[in-house]
Amino acid sequence: DLVVNLAATLGGMHAKNLGEIFATNFCGNLNLVERSAARGVKRYVFASSLTVHGSNRPQEPCTVTTPFRPKHAYGASKAAIASVDERGPCRSALSTAASNTGWPRRASRS
Question: How many C-beta atoms lie closer than 10 Å to residue 55's C-beta?
Fold first, then answer.
């Protein structure tokens, strides 16, 4: 009834493995979403990343309403699959959720 996908290929600003990043993070995720829906799975959770927002600097904290502004292939691949999952053909058959993980920040002291 539930599929959790934590698979990913990493890559930063100067990544040379762009094809691998998109093959795993976008195409692989899309294939798994479609197959899950076809098999009657009701819930699908995948690991996304705060890199979809482009930055998570203390001066520019991200929230759930922060628009996607990825700055490299890894962030773009995660943003692309989140967009497909939100509006894609499996949406009516499958409930999807993304976990945008990142490094926790220590609360500032006043």
Answer: 15
Residue 32: Cβ-neighbour burial (10 angstroms; 0-12, 13-18, 19+): middle
**pLDDT value, residue 105:** 46
pTM (two decimals): 0.73
Measure the CA angle with vertex 96, ends 90 and 102; round to 5°. Answer: 140
| DSSP per-residue letters across 39-96 | TT--EEEEE--GGGGS---TTS---TTPPP---SHHHHHHHHHHHHHHHSTTTTT-EE
Q: Identify the bridge partners of residue 98 per DSSP, sorted by sequence position.
A: 46
24: exposed, middle or buried (Cβ count in 10 Å: 0-12, 13-18, 19+)? middle
- What string of H, E and C letters represents the secondary structure of 20-53? HHHHHHHHHHHHHHHHHHHCCCCEEEEECCHHHH
Q: For 63-96, write each residue's pLDDT tens digit.
A: 778 888 888 898 899 888 887 756 555 555 556 6
State both tokens at 55. Answer: 């930055």
